[in-house]
Specification:
homodimer; alpha/beta; Isopropylmalate Dehydrogenase
């Protein structure tokens, strides 16, 4: 089967989906895959236990016609150490899926499963782009009708200024290709707007970002980013991960409180009926499922990491992101930029 | 005047307030000071330009009866470097105020002005508690009817595990004395709940916190903290500052979006009338003014840092925090704890 994939370069972008990963796998993953295939012009390959995929489709009344299956008999749990998956689970959906994706320039891999394993298998099978120091996970934070890209949100807990410079370059390319922003405003997340604010790493990073071939607008504070201050916000994976989860937690908390406001008495319940639709639209604006997943940038291929609690809608939208990333040629554009950067350094 | 303060140890707690600091100084600061004096059993000293304080009180129709004024002729701007204030602005409200507070065990200092200057002057005049490695700024994040203490939110951009251990101890004492929590749940902000998650500093900090004489419950993620997972959340000042400001930014953004929902059309505007009161109550639950300010922990005295945009209500509530901190004996309790910690290390 692998042979076939290698030789027959599909004309359409191919999205290889980890059918076994995530809280609602395989049912919701398969549903999302079918929806994505119907809505976007892509080929779909489901990586996972074939018997369970077929059983799930039957149970849910879904047709797998036109969808390829890459059988993977091993399971990866959320607790599996990435290093163990690489060594001992080469027949898992994540390993096989990333391996398949590495063999075709027009294929992307997508998983809502073990993030560490997806990252490790992507690195092993697709490899890092030459010249890239560290890959980064780039996610989209919805801001009502706007949004910003936040990276890194978890690939690197410890950081060097040189990494952050590359994150700025990669984030800028992502923003250009996916959101068609002509000159993305790239900012460094920091504790003050002045150049000399922050910890040692951020002071040095500021200098490097200023000299990168991007539209670097300087430091932004935690407050500014929710006020459309930048299109791309760069930070280390420790801060980014905490911030991303805090955003989720706070949004959840906020909507819980709003619900309580409306459930106070008969009159407020009546009021809830009136604003129900508008409120639903507002809630959607904060919904990570709208963007489907985060992009692992810096590897020689496309890997999308979806939220563990992804349902069909998130998977469908992650497919859109995968297709867009392939069509936009994000990987080759990062390669060009890093190449010219390193050539300039040498000259 | 200083002589008088030294010799006549007031029976009531004394709050020395920087009348010149903050966006709405001196009017709102003086209003808040008068409200606080009326509501809590405290003496008030206003540190600042006497002529301007008197003029402001006259303009606002406020009586300064019973309130002391410590005249301070120099101004500190938000841009003044803390080191310059220490060296060249010894006649500023912040310098004089911290100096006065240092001379009386029952006095606290409060400023909504230049945070760096307030910190630096507190360190110079009140000095660090012996054995404390670094002071930390501890703030309260409101969570509806609940809340948690977050520290450090800005005193230390670069951090060592030993600092975080002490932050846990100081935060626990703060929570006990101010919120009367019997056994505060202290947690380390991290990217995963497992002990070995995070960056190098957090892994080491986890070990140290586990062995501290506090109710350490382990790591919490950005999501958990909005779900009442801990009473005290410990982090470095870089992450804490970004998170605190992100919290403010997100809350502002949410309420802006909610407003739009209600302003959509006639019917939704009608609905807004119905839930208006409940919504206002909800908004109050997110209001930092309810807690008035952040406590600078680790110095041999009480300094409260209020938000730059503090109005009278925030200053009034900061006075409550100052009085509570003095009455609770937070400083002597931190001293005891750090002493016994260091004695244990030596024995």
């Amino acid at each position: 089967m692998e042979e076939k994939v290698i030789s027959s370069l599909p004309l359409k972008p191919e999205i290889i989906i980890d059918a076994m990963g995530g809280d609602f796998a395989p049912d919701e993953i398969i549903k999302g895959a079918i929806q994505g295939r119907a809505d976007f012009d892509v080929e779909i390959t489901l990586a996972g236990n074939k018997a369970r995929i077929v059983a799930s489709a039957e149970r849910c009344g879904l047709s797998l016609e036109g969808i390829r299956i890459a059988d993977a008999i091993q399971d990866v749990s959320m607790d599996d150490a990435p290093s163990d998956v690489i060594k001992h689970k080469k027949n898992s959906s994540i390993y096989i899926g990333t391996e398949l994706a590495s063999k075709n320039r027009n294929s992307a891999f997508l998983s809502a499963g073990n993030t560490g394993a997806a990252m490790a298998c992507s690195l092993i099978n697709m490899r890092k782009i030459e010249g890239i120091l560290r890959p980064a996970i780039a996610t989209v934070i919805p801001l009502g009708s706007k949004r910003f890209i936040l990276l890194d949100v978890g690939a690197n807990a410890d950081i060097k200024p040189e990494y952050l410079k590359q994150f700025g370059i990669m984030g800028s390319i992502y923003c250009k290709e996916i959101f068609k922003t002509t000159k993305p405003r790239v900012a460094l997340l920091n504790v003050g707007s002045e150049e000399k604010k922050g910890n040692e790493v951020s002071k040095e990073s500021h200098k490097l970002l200023k000299n990168a071939n991007i539209n670097f607008i300087g430091n932004v504070e935690g407050r500014d980013i929710f006020n459309d201050a930048a299109d791309v916000v760069v930070c280390d994976g420790f801060v980014g991960n905490i911030l991303l989860k805090a955003f989720e937690g706070m949004a959840g908390f906020f909507f819980k409180e709003i619900k309580e406001v409306f459930y106070s008495n008969m009159m407020t319940k009546l009021s809830a009926l009136i604003v129900r639709n508008n409120l639903r639209v507002m809630k959607q604006k904060f919904d990570y499922e709208e963007y489907g997943g985060a992009l692992l940038l810096g590897i020689d291929g496309i890997t999308i990491i979806s939220h563990g609690s992804s349902k069909a809608k998130a998977i469908r939208n992650a497919i859109r992101l995968g297709a867009g990333s392939l069509k936009g040629g994000i990987v080759s554009k990062i390669k060009e930029e890093i190449n010219s950067l390193n050539n300039n350094l040498e000259s």
